[in-house]
Design a protein that fits this description.
This protein folds into five domains: 2-100, 3-Layer(aba) Sandwich (Rossmann fold); 115-151, no CATH class; 152-277, Hect, E3 ligase catalytic domain fold (Alpha-Beta Complex); 282-360 and 448-536, no CATH class; 367-436, no CATH class. The chain is 45% helix and 16% strand. The chain has helices spanning 21-30, 45-48, 52-64, 83-114, 154-168, 173-182, 201-209, 256-273, 320-325, 336-352, 357-383, 386-410, 414-436, 447-465, 469-479, 517-524, and strands spanning 39-42, 68-71, 76-77, 126-137, 143-152, 216-219, 222-226, 233-237, 244-247, 296-298, 306-309, 316-318, 334-335, 483-490, 493-503, 528-530, 534-536. Strand 14 (483-490) and strand 15 (493-503) form a beta hairpin. It starts with 20 loop residues before the first helix and ends in an 8-residue tail after the last strand.
Protein backbone atom coordinates (compact mmCIF):
# COMPACT_ATOMS: atom_id res chain seq x y z
CA UNK A 1 0.00 0.00 0.00
CA UNK A 2 2.75 2.45 0.98
CA UNK A 3 4.73 1.68 -2.17
CA UNK A 4 1.81 2.96 -4.25
CA UNK A 5 2.60 6.52 -3.12
CA UNK A 6 6.37 6.62 -3.58
CA UNK A 7 7.29 9.31 -6.11
CA UNK A 8 10.58 10.65 -7.48
CA UNK A 9 11.73 13.36 -9.91
CA UNK A 10 15.10 11.95 -10.95
CA UNK A 11 17.26 14.21 -13.06
CA UNK A 12 14.85 17.18 -12.78
CA UNK A 13 16.02 20.58 -11.56
CA UNK A 14 14.67 21.79 -8.25
CA UNK A 15 14.69 25.41 -9.40
CA UNK A 16 11.21 25.16 -10.90
CA UNK A 17 7.96 23.25 -10.38
CA UNK A 18 7.64 22.72 -14.14
CA UNK A 19 8.30 19.07 -15.02
CA UNK A 20 8.12 17.91 -11.39
CA UNK A 21 5.67 15.14 -12.22
CA UNK A 22 6.33 13.12 -9.07
CA UNK A 23 5.81 16.05 -6.70
CA UNK A 24 2.84 17.39 -8.63
CA UNK A 25 1.21 13.96 -8.51
CA UNK A 26 1.55 13.86 -4.71
CA UNK A 27 -0.04 17.31 -4.51
CA UNK A 28 -2.89 16.10 -6.73
CA UNK A 29 -3.43 13.05 -4.51
CA UNK A 30 -3.40 15.27 -1.40
CA UNK A 31 -6.36 17.17 -2.86
CA UNK A 32 -8.52 14.07 -3.36
CA UNK A 33 -11.29 13.11 -0.98
CA UNK A 34 -10.74 11.07 1.04
CA UNK A 35 -7.01 11.81 0.88
CA UNK A 36 -4.86 8.66 0.78
CA UNK A 37 -2.19 9.92 3.20
CA UNK A 38 -1.68 12.50 5.97
CA UNK A 39 2.06 13.10 5.73
CA UNK A 40 4.77 13.10 3.06
CA UNK A 41 8.28 11.93 3.98
CA UNK A 42 11.18 13.62 2.15
CA UNK A 43 14.87 12.81 2.54
CA UNK A 44 16.17 16.40 2.57
CA UNK A 45 14.66 19.88 2.29
CA UNK A 46 16.63 20.46 -0.91
CA UNK A 47 14.77 17.51 -2.51
CA UNK A 48 11.53 19.47 -2.33
CA UNK A 49 13.08 22.30 -4.35
CA UNK A 50 15.82 24.91 -4.51
CA UNK A 51 13.69 28.00 -5.15
CA UNK A 52 12.29 29.40 -1.91
CA UNK A 53 9.01 30.93 -3.22
CA UNK A 54 8.09 27.61 -4.86
CA UNK A 55 8.77 25.39 -1.84
CA UNK A 56 6.94 27.73 0.55
CA UNK A 57 3.92 27.66 -1.74
CA UNK A 58 3.99 23.84 -1.84
CA UNK A 59 4.02 23.63 1.96
CA UNK A 60 1.09 26.06 2.12
CA UNK A 61 -0.94 24.11 -0.46
CA UNK A 62 -0.36 20.79 1.29
CA UNK A 63 -1.14 22.30 4.69
CA UNK A 64 -4.38 23.67 3.25
CA UNK A 65 -5.44 20.09 2.49
CA UNK A 66 -4.32 18.70 5.85
CA UNK A 67 -1.11 17.03 4.63
CA UNK A 68 2.10 17.45 6.66
CA UNK A 69 5.74 17.26 5.59
CA UNK A 70 8.65 15.55 7.35
CA UNK A 71 12.27 16.04 6.25
CA UNK A 72 14.42 13.19 7.54
CA UNK A 73 17.86 14.80 7.17
CA UNK A 74 16.94 17.87 9.22
CA UNK A 75 14.29 16.23 11.44
CA UNK A 76 11.86 18.97 10.37
CA UNK A 77 8.14 18.36 10.91
CA UNK A 78 5.63 20.86 9.51
CA UNK A 79 3.29 20.10 12.43
CA UNK A 80 5.78 21.54 14.93
CA UNK A 81 5.66 25.18 16.09
CA UNK A 82 8.21 27.38 14.41
CA UNK A 83 8.50 25.03 11.42
CA UNK A 84 8.03 27.77 8.83
CA UNK A 85 10.83 29.95 10.18
CA UNK A 86 13.32 27.06 10.37
CA UNK A 87 12.27 25.69 6.99
CA UNK A 88 12.68 29.14 5.42
CA UNK A 89 16.30 29.26 6.62
CA UNK A 90 17.00 25.84 5.09
CA UNK A 91 15.24 26.91 1.89
CA UNK A 92 17.43 30.01 1.65
CA UNK A 93 20.57 27.87 2.03
CA UNK A 94 19.34 25.38 -0.59
CA UNK A 95 18.66 28.24 -2.99
CA UNK A 96 22.04 29.85 -2.30
CA UNK A 97 23.78 26.54 -3.08
CA UNK A 98 22.60 26.82 -6.70
CA UNK A 99 23.83 30.40 -7.02
CA UNK A 100 27.18 29.55 -5.46
CA UNK A 101 27.63 26.54 -7.73
CA UNK A 102 26.80 28.66 -10.76
CA UNK A 103 29.43 31.25 -9.81
CA UNK A 104 32.07 28.55 -9.24
CA UNK A 105 31.38 26.96 -12.64
CA UNK A 106 31.53 30.34 -14.36
CA UNK A 107 34.82 31.17 -12.64
CA UNK A 108 36.24 27.79 -13.66
CA UNK A 109 35.19 28.31 -17.28
CA UNK A 110 36.91 31.68 -17.34
CA UNK A 111 40.10 30.06 -16.15
CA UNK A 112 39.83 27.40 -18.89
CA UNK A 113 39.48 30.09 -21.57
CA UNK A 114 42.42 32.18 -20.33
CA UNK A 115 44.61 29.03 -20.29
CA UNK A 116 43.71 28.22 -23.88
CA UNK A 117 41.27 25.39 -23.16
CA UNK A 118 37.66 24.93 -24.30
CA UNK A 119 35.18 26.10 -21.59
CA UNK A 120 32.50 23.73 -22.90
CA UNK A 121 30.53 22.74 -25.98
CA UNK A 122 31.46 21.90 -29.56
CA UNK A 123 32.05 24.00 -32.66
CA UNK A 124 31.72 22.96 -36.29
CA UNK A 125 35.15 22.64 -37.86
CA UNK A 126 36.90 21.47 -34.69
CA UNK A 127 37.36 18.26 -32.73
CA UNK A 128 37.47 18.38 -28.93
CA UNK A 129 40.56 16.59 -27.58
CA UNK A 130 40.93 15.98 -23.81
CA UNK A 131 44.32 16.75 -22.26
CA UNK A 132 45.25 14.18 -19.61
CA UNK A 133 47.63 14.48 -16.67
CA UNK A 134 49.53 11.15 -16.38
CA UNK A 135 50.46 11.92 -12.77
CA UNK A 136 46.84 12.16 -11.55
CA UNK A 137 44.05 9.62 -11.52
CA UNK A 138 40.54 10.53 -12.60
CA UNK A 139 37.35 8.52 -12.87
CA UNK A 140 37.37 4.83 -13.80
CA UNK A 141 41.13 4.60 -13.22
CA UNK A 142 42.03 6.78 -16.21
CA UNK A 143 44.40 9.79 -15.98
CA UNK A 144 42.68 13.00 -14.84
CA UNK A 145 41.59 15.43 -17.55
CA UNK A 146 43.05 18.88 -16.95
CA UNK A 147 41.39 20.55 -19.93
CA UNK A 148 40.08 20.21 -23.47
CA UNK A 149 41.81 21.54 -26.56
CA UNK A 150 40.43 21.79 -30.10
CA UNK A 151 41.90 20.50 -33.35
CA UNK A 152 40.82 21.50 -36.85
CA UNK A 153 38.94 18.84 -38.84
CA UNK A 154 40.17 19.13 -42.46
CA UNK A 155 36.89 18.04 -44.08
CA UNK A 156 34.83 20.55 -42.12
CA UNK A 157 37.48 23.24 -42.62
CA UNK A 158 36.95 22.94 -46.38
CA UNK A 159 33.19 23.45 -45.94
CA UNK A 160 33.74 26.54 -43.76
CA UNK A 161 36.16 28.12 -46.24
CA UNK A 162 33.69 27.43 -49.04
CA UNK A 163 30.86 29.08 -47.09
CA UNK A 164 32.94 32.24 -46.60
CA UNK A 165 33.97 32.27 -50.26
CA UNK A 166 30.37 31.85 -51.50
CA UNK A 167 29.12 34.62 -49.23
CA UNK A 168 31.94 37.00 -50.15
CA UNK A 169 31.09 36.33 -53.82
CA UNK A 170 27.50 37.50 -53.27
CA UNK A 171 25.54 34.32 -52.41
CA UNK A 172 22.81 34.75 -49.79
CA UNK A 173 22.49 32.70 -46.61
CA UNK A 174 19.61 30.76 -48.20
CA UNK A 175 21.57 30.11 -51.42
CA UNK A 176 24.48 28.69 -49.45
CA UNK A 177 22.21 26.49 -47.29
CA UNK A 178 20.36 25.11 -50.33
CA UNK A 179 23.63 24.36 -52.13
CA UNK A 180 25.06 22.42 -49.18
CA UNK A 181 21.79 20.52 -48.68
CA UNK A 182 21.58 19.64 -52.39
CA UNK A 183 25.12 18.21 -52.25
CA UNK A 184 24.27 16.09 -49.20
CA UNK A 185 26.79 17.76 -46.87
CA UNK A 186 25.79 16.93 -43.30
CA UNK A 187 24.74 19.95 -41.24
CA UNK A 188 26.45 20.65 -37.86
CA UNK A 189 23.72 19.15 -35.69
CA UNK A 190 20.21 17.77 -35.65
CA UNK A 191 17.51 20.47 -35.37
CA UNK A 192 15.83 21.19 -32.04
CA UNK A 193 12.48 21.47 -33.81
CA UNK A 194 11.11 19.79 -36.89
CA UNK A 195 12.03 16.47 -38.45
CA UNK A 196 14.57 17.42 -41.11
CA UNK A 197 18.30 17.73 -40.47
CA UNK A 198 19.55 20.37 -42.86
CA UNK A 199 21.59 23.53 -43.23
CA UNK A 200 19.53 26.65 -42.62
CA UNK A 201 20.19 30.37 -43.27
CA UNK A 202 20.46 31.18 -39.56
CA UNK A 203 23.23 28.59 -39.09
CA UNK A 204 25.14 30.02 -42.06
CA UNK A 205 24.80 33.51 -40.59
CA UNK A 206 26.16 32.43 -37.18
CA UNK A 207 29.14 30.70 -38.80
CA UNK A 208 29.98 33.81 -40.80
CA UNK A 209 30.01 35.81 -37.54
CA UNK A 210 32.05 33.28 -35.51
CA UNK A 211 35.42 34.92 -34.78
CA UNK A 212 37.00 31.60 -33.83
CA UNK A 213 37.33 30.90 -37.57
CA UNK A 214 39.73 33.88 -37.77
CA UNK A 215 41.69 32.77 -34.71
CA UNK A 216 39.95 34.65 -31.87
CA UNK A 217 37.95 33.00 -29.09
CA UNK A 218 35.20 35.26 -27.72
CA UNK A 219 33.71 34.00 -24.45
CA UNK A 220 31.09 35.26 -21.99
CA UNK A 221 28.87 36.96 -24.58
CA UNK A 222 25.71 35.45 -23.06
CA UNK A 223 24.43 34.17 -19.75
CA UNK A 224 21.98 31.36 -19.04
CA UNK A 225 18.95 32.41 -16.99
CA UNK A 226 16.09 30.17 -15.87
CA UNK A 227 12.59 31.40 -16.66
CA UNK A 228 10.66 30.78 -13.43
CA UNK A 229 7.33 30.71 -15.27
CA UNK A 230 8.19 28.09 -17.91
CA UNK A 231 11.01 26.28 -16.10
CA UNK A 232 13.18 26.57 -19.21
CA UNK A 233 16.59 28.17 -19.50
CA UNK A 234 17.11 31.18 -21.75
CA UNK A 235 20.21 32.77 -23.26
CA UNK A 236 20.53 36.50 -22.64
CA UNK A 237 23.28 38.82 -23.94
CA UNK A 238 25.93 40.32 -21.68
CA UNK A 239 27.46 43.76 -22.01
CA UNK A 240 30.38 43.80 -24.47
CA UNK A 241 32.60 45.06 -21.64
CA UNK A 242 32.17 41.62 -19.98
CA UNK A 243 33.35 39.66 -23.03
CA UNK A 244 36.66 37.81 -22.86
CA UNK A 245 38.80 37.68 -26.04
CA UNK A 246 41.74 35.31 -26.45
CA UNK A 247 43.97 35.03 -29.54
CA UNK A 248 44.23 31.40 -30.78
CA UNK A 249 46.14 31.56 -34.09
CA UNK A 250 46.44 27.74 -34.20
CA UNK A 251 42.65 27.55 -34.67
CA UNK A 252 42.46 29.97 -37.61
CA UNK A 253 40.56 28.49 -40.56
CA UNK A 254 39.72 31.60 -42.61
CA UNK A 255 42.42 33.98 -43.83
CA UNK A 256 42.38 37.63 -42.83
CA UNK A 257 41.56 38.67 -46.42
CA UNK A 258 38.62 36.27 -46.71
CA UNK A 259 37.25 37.29 -43.30
CA UNK A 260 37.36 40.96 -44.27
CA UNK A 261 35.72 40.23 -47.65
CA UNK A 262 32.84 38.49 -45.87
CA UNK A 263 32.50 41.41 -43.43
CA UNK A 264 32.37 43.88 -46.32
CA UNK A 265 29.67 41.83 -48.03
CA UNK A 266 27.74 41.73 -44.76
CA UNK A 267 27.94 45.53 -44.55
CA UNK A 268 26.58 45.92 -48.07
CA UNK A 269 23.69 43.54 -47.36
CA UNK A 270 22.77 45.40 -44.15
CA UNK A 271 22.76 48.74 -45.94
CA UNK A 272 20.49 47.42 -48.67
CA UNK A 273 18.09 45.22 -46.72
CA UNK A 274 18.69 45.69 -42.99
CA UNK A 275 16.28 48.52 -42.10
CA UNK A 276 13.42 46.79 -43.90
CA UNK A 277 13.94 43.46 -42.19
CA UNK A 278 14.37 44.39 -38.56
CA UNK A 279 12.31 42.29 -36.20
CA UNK A 280 10.49 42.78 -32.92
CA UNK A 281 9.28 46.30 -32.13
CA UNK A 282 11.27 47.69 -35.10
CA UNK A 283 9.06 46.03 -37.68
CA UNK A 284 7.18 48.27 -40.06
CA UNK A 285 3.57 49.11 -39.30
CA UNK A 286 2.38 46.97 -42.21
CA UNK A 287 4.40 43.90 -41.20
CA UNK A 288 2.88 43.96 -37.70
CA UNK A 289 -0.55 43.53 -39.30
CA UNK A 290 0.14 40.19 -41.00
CA UNK A 291 -3.06 38.51 -39.85
CA UNK A 292 -1.89 34.89 -39.85
CA UNK A 293 1.72 35.18 -38.72
CA UNK A 294 2.81 32.10 -36.68
CA UNK A 295 -0.56 30.37 -37.29
CA UNK A 296 0.26 28.53 -40.55
CA UNK A 297 2.04 25.20 -40.94
CA UNK A 298 3.36 23.29 -43.95
CA UNK A 299 1.45 20.05 -44.51
CA UNK A 300 4.54 18.24 -45.85
CA UNK A 301 7.32 19.07 -43.37
CA UNK A 302 5.47 20.76 -40.45
CA UNK A 303 7.57 23.94 -40.69
CA UNK A 304 5.86 27.27 -40.02
CA UNK A 305 4.61 28.87 -43.25
CA UNK A 306 6.24 32.32 -43.35
CA UNK A 307 6.91 35.26 -45.66
CA UNK A 308 9.52 33.91 -48.10
CA UNK A 309 9.74 36.84 -50.55
CA UNK A 310 8.56 40.37 -51.17
CA UNK A 311 7.31 43.01 -48.79
CA UNK A 312 3.82 43.92 -47.64
CA UNK A 313 1.40 44.21 -49.30
CA UNK A 314 3.12 42.15 -52.03
CA UNK A 315 4.74 39.60 -49.72
CA UNK A 316 4.33 35.89 -50.45
CA UNK A 317 3.79 33.07 -47.97
CA UNK A 318 5.61 29.77 -48.48
CA UNK A 319 7.50 26.93 -46.84
CA UNK A 320 10.93 28.07 -45.53
CA UNK A 321 12.30 24.52 -45.72
CA UNK A 322 11.80 24.65 -49.49
CA UNK A 323 12.69 28.26 -50.06
CA UNK A 324 15.72 28.58 -47.77
CA UNK A 325 16.95 25.02 -47.33
CA UNK A 326 15.73 23.08 -50.36
CA UNK A 327 14.68 20.08 -48.23
CA UNK A 328 10.88 20.19 -48.71
CA UNK A 329 8.95 19.59 -51.93
CA UNK A 330 6.31 22.23 -51.09
CA UNK A 331 7.14 24.87 -53.72
CA UNK A 332 3.72 26.54 -53.67
CA UNK A 333 3.64 30.19 -52.59
CA UNK A 334 0.70 32.55 -52.26
CA UNK A 335 0.54 36.36 -52.00
CA UNK A 336 -0.32 37.72 -48.58
CA UNK A 337 -3.45 39.55 -49.73
CA UNK A 338 -4.82 36.50 -51.56
CA UNK A 339 -4.19 34.24 -48.57
CA UNK A 340 -5.79 36.63 -46.10
CA UNK A 341 -8.87 37.40 -48.22
CA UNK A 342 -9.57 33.74 -48.94
CA UNK A 343 -8.91 32.55 -45.37
CA UNK A 344 -11.05 35.28 -43.81
CA UNK A 345 -13.88 34.51 -46.23
CA UNK A 346 -13.60 30.76 -45.47
CA UNK A 347 -13.57 31.37 -41.70
CA UNK A 348 -16.64 33.58 -41.97
CA UNK A 349 -18.45 31.04 -44.16
CA UNK A 350 -17.72 28.21 -41.74
CA UNK A 351 -18.81 30.25 -38.74
CA UNK A 352 -22.14 31.17 -40.35
CA UNK A 353 -22.81 27.82 -42.08
CA UNK A 354 -26.31 26.73 -40.93
CA UNK A 355 -25.53 23.12 -41.82
CA UNK A 356 -23.00 22.97 -38.96
CA UNK A 357 -25.28 24.64 -36.41
CA UNK A 358 -26.90 21.48 -35.02
CA UNK A 359 -23.53 19.74 -34.65
CA UNK A 360 -22.18 22.68 -32.60
CA UNK A 361 -25.25 22.81 -30.38
CA UNK A 362 -25.10 19.09 -29.62
CA UNK A 363 -21.34 19.23 -29.01
CA UNK A 364 -21.83 22.09 -26.57
CA UNK A 365 -24.54 20.23 -24.64
CA UNK A 366 -22.46 17.05 -24.48
CA UNK A 367 -19.37 18.85 -23.18
CA UNK A 368 -21.38 20.87 -20.68
CA UNK A 369 -23.12 17.78 -19.30
CA UNK A 370 -19.87 15.79 -19.00
CA UNK A 371 -18.09 18.59 -17.13
CA UNK A 372 -21.01 19.27 -14.81
CA UNK A 373 -21.32 15.55 -14.01
CA UNK A 374 -17.64 15.49 -13.03
CA UNK A 375 -17.99 18.61 -10.85
CA UNK A 376 -21.09 17.16 -9.18
CA UNK A 377 -19.32 13.87 -8.43
CA UNK A 378 -16.41 15.70 -6.85
CA UNK A 379 -18.78 17.84 -4.81
CA UNK A 380 -20.51 14.72 -3.47
CA UNK A 381 -17.17 13.21 -2.48
CA UNK A 382 -16.33 16.37 -0.57
CA UNK A 383 -19.79 16.42 1.04
CA UNK A 384 -19.25 12.90 2.35
CA UNK A 385 -16.65 14.31 4.74
CA UNK A 386 -18.76 17.29 5.74
CA UNK A 387 -20.08 15.75 8.98
CA UNK A 388 -16.57 15.00 10.26
CA UNK A 389 -15.31 18.45 9.22
CA UNK A 390 -18.29 20.12 10.90
CA UNK A 391 -17.57 18.39 14.22
CA UNK A 392 -13.86 19.23 14.02
CA UNK A 393 -14.72 22.84 13.19
CA UNK A 394 -16.94 23.16 16.26
CA UNK A 395 -14.26 21.65 18.53
CA UNK A 396 -11.58 23.98 17.18
CA UNK A 397 -13.79 27.05 17.57
CA UNK A 398 -14.19 26.20 21.28
CA UNK A 399 -10.44 25.71 21.63
CA UNK A 400 -9.86 29.02 19.86
CA UNK A 401 -12.16 30.78 22.35
CA UNK A 402 -10.36 29.16 25.34
CA UNK A 403 -6.92 30.10 23.99
CA UNK A 404 -7.97 33.72 23.53
CA UNK A 405 -9.28 33.79 27.13
CA UNK A 406 -6.05 32.24 28.43
CA UNK A 407 -3.89 34.83 26.66
CA UNK A 408 -6.12 37.63 27.98
CA UNK A 409 -5.84 36.36 31.59
CA UNK A 410 -2.17 35.28 31.70
CA UNK A 411 -0.57 37.48 29.07
CA UNK A 412 1.40 36.63 25.95
CA UNK A 413 2.96 33.16 25.75
CA UNK A 414 4.90 31.79 22.74
CA UNK A 415 3.36 28.35 23.20
CA UNK A 416 -0.22 29.67 23.49
CA UNK A 417 0.32 32.03 20.54
CA UNK A 418 1.71 29.24 18.35
CA UNK A 419 -1.18 26.92 19.24
CA UNK A 420 -3.73 29.67 18.53
CA UNK A 421 -2.16 30.31 15.13
CA UNK A 422 -2.29 26.58 14.34
CA UNK A 423 -5.93 26.30 15.40
CA UNK A 424 -6.99 29.34 13.39
CA UNK A 425 -5.16 28.06 10.30
CA UNK A 426 -6.98 24.73 10.55
CA UNK A 427 -10.33 26.50 11.00
CA UNK A 428 -9.74 28.47 7.78
CA UNK A 429 -8.72 25.26 6.02
CA UNK A 430 -11.88 23.44 7.07
CA UNK A 431 -14.09 26.34 6.02
CA UNK A 432 -12.47 26.32 2.57
CA UNK A 433 -12.99 22.58 2.22
CA UNK A 434 -16.65 22.80 3.21
CA UNK A 435 -17.31 25.73 0.89
CA UNK A 436 -15.62 23.91 -1.99
CA UNK A 437 -17.95 20.96 -1.50
CA UNK A 438 -21.04 22.73 -2.83
CA UNK A 439 -22.19 21.48 -6.22
CA UNK A 440 -22.11 23.94 -9.14
CA UNK A 441 -25.43 25.66 -9.78
CA UNK A 442 -25.81 26.20 -13.50
CA UNK A 443 -28.99 27.58 -15.08
CA UNK A 444 -30.79 25.45 -17.65
CA UNK A 445 -30.93 26.86 -21.18
CA UNK A 446 -33.24 25.83 -24.00
CA UNK A 447 -32.08 24.67 -27.41
CA UNK A 448 -33.36 27.94 -28.91
CA UNK A 449 -31.31 29.99 -26.44
CA UNK A 450 -28.19 28.00 -27.26
CA UNK A 451 -28.75 28.40 -31.01
CA UNK A 452 -29.28 32.15 -30.66
CA UNK A 453 -26.12 32.36 -28.54
CA UNK A 454 -24.00 30.57 -31.15
CA UNK A 455 -25.42 32.66 -33.96
CA UNK A 456 -24.69 35.88 -32.08
CA UNK A 457 -21.13 34.86 -31.17
CA UNK A 458 -20.43 33.75 -34.74
CA UNK A 459 -21.68 37.05 -36.17
CA UNK A 460 -19.60 39.00 -33.62
CA UNK A 461 -16.47 37.09 -34.66
CA UNK A 462 -17.19 37.65 -38.37
CA UNK A 463 -17.52 41.40 -37.73
CA UNK A 464 -14.16 41.37 -35.94
CA UNK A 465 -12.54 39.62 -38.91
CA UNK A 466 -13.88 42.29 -41.26
CA UNK A 467 -12.86 45.18 -39.01
CA UNK A 468 -9.59 46.64 -37.72
CA UNK A 469 -6.70 44.36 -38.87
CA UNK A 470 -4.78 44.80 -35.61
CA UNK A 471 -7.78 43.65 -33.55
CA UNK A 472 -8.51 40.83 -35.99
CA UNK A 473 -4.92 39.59 -35.74
CA UNK A 474 -5.04 39.53 -31.94
CA UNK A 475 -8.35 37.64 -31.96
CA UNK A 476 -7.06 35.08 -34.46
CA UNK A 477 -4.02 34.37 -32.27
CA UNK A 478 -6.31 33.70 -29.30
CA UNK A 479 -8.72 31.44 -31.17
CA UNK A 480 -6.53 29.48 -33.62
CA UNK A 481 -3.80 27.02 -32.63
CA UNK A 482 -2.55 26.09 -36.10
CA UNK A 483 -3.83 25.94 -39.69
CA UNK A 484 -2.13 23.32 -41.85
CA UNK A 485 -1.58 24.24 -45.52
CA UNK A 486 -1.01 21.18 -47.74
CA UNK A 487 -0.13 21.72 -51.43
CA UNK A 488 -2.27 19.97 -54.04
CA UNK A 489 -2.13 19.90 -57.82
CA UNK A 490 -5.39 20.56 -59.72
CA UNK A 491 -6.14 20.87 -63.46
CA UNK A 492 -6.11 24.65 -62.96
CA UNK A 493 -2.81 24.77 -61.05
CA UNK A 494 -1.45 24.41 -57.51
CA UNK A 495 -3.58 25.20 -54.47
CA UNK A 496 -3.39 24.85 -50.68
CA UNK A 497 -5.87 22.65 -48.82
CA UNK A 498 -6.41 24.03 -45.31
CA UNK A 499 -7.20 21.96 -42.22
CA UNK A 500 -7.54 23.10 -38.62
CA UNK A 501 -10.11 24.56 -36.28
CA UNK A 502 -11.08 27.81 -34.60
CA UNK A 503 -12.46 28.50 -31.13
CA UNK A 504 -15.70 30.42 -30.86
CA UNK A 505 -14.42 32.03 -27.66
CA UNK A 506 -11.35 34.11 -26.84
CA UNK A 507 -10.27 31.87 -23.99
CA UNK A 508 -8.77 33.78 -21.05
CA UNK A 509 -9.43 37.07 -22.79
CA UNK A 510 -13.20 36.85 -22.28
CA UNK A 511 -14.78 37.89 -19.00
CA UNK A 512 -16.56 34.97 -17.36
CA UNK A 513 -20.08 35.86 -16.29
CA UNK A 514 -21.11 32.92 -14.14
CA UNK A 515 -24.84 33.30 -14.75
CA UNK A 516 -24.57 33.93 -18.47
CA UNK A 517 -24.51 31.36 -21.24
CA UNK A 518 -21.29 32.91 -22.54
CA UNK A 519 -19.54 32.57 -19.19
CA UNK A 520 -20.72 28.99 -18.75
CA UNK A 521 -19.63 28.09 -22.29
CA UNK A 522 -16.12 29.37 -21.63
CA UNK A 523 -15.84 27.84 -18.19
CA UNK A 524 -17.29 24.40 -18.82
CA UNK A 525 -16.51 23.67 -22.50
CA UNK A 526 -13.68 23.89 -25.03
CA UNK A 527 -15.78 24.18 -28.17
CA UNK A 528 -13.76 24.38 -31.40
CA UNK A 529 -15.16 24.57 -34.92
CA UNK A 530 -13.40 22.45 -37.55
CA UNK A 531 -12.83 24.12 -40.90
CA UNK A 532 -14.41 22.31 -43.81
CA UNK A 533 -13.56 22.38 -47.55
CA UNK A 534 -11.16 25.34 -47.34
CA UNK A 535 -8.94 25.79 -50.41
CA UNK A 536 -6.52 28.66 -51.07
CA UNK A 537 -5.89 29.44 -54.74
CA UNK A 538 -2.75 31.51 -55.54
CA UNK A 539 -4.41 32.58 -58.82
CA UNK A 540 -7.43 34.02 -56.97
CA UNK A 541 -8.30 37.59 -58.02
CA UNK A 542 -8.07 39.96 -55.08
CA UNK A 543 -10.96 42.37 -54.57
CA UNK A 544 -9.72 45.93 -54.14
Amino acid sequence: MLDDFIRADSGITGQSMVGRDGLNDLIRLAKTAPRPFDIILIDDSSRLGRYLPDVLKVTDVLDNYGVSLYFAAQGLDSRQPGFRQIFTLHGMMNEQYVFGLRDKVHRGQRGRVLNGYVPGGKCYGYRNVPVEDPNRRGEYGRPAVIGVLQQIIPEEKAVIVRIFEMYAAGASYADIAKTLNAEGILSPQAPHKGKIRAWCPSAIREMLLNEKYRGVVVWNRTQTVRNRETGKTEQRPRLESEWVRVEVPELRIVSHELWQAAREQNRRVREKYGPKRLGGMNRTKTSRLYLFSSLLECGLCSANIVIVSGQAPNARYGCPNHRRRGVCKNSVTIPQRKLEQQLLAALSANLLDPRLEEERVQSFRTQLKATLDTDTRRAREAASQDSHLKDEHATLKKEQHNLVDAIAKHGFSPALSARLASVEARIVQIERLRNAGSAPKVPVFTIEEIREFFERKSQEFVKILAGDPAIAREQLRKRITKLVLTPKQTPDGSVFEVTGDVSLFQGNGDVMLTNSLEGIAQHYTALRISLAAVVLDPSFRVSE
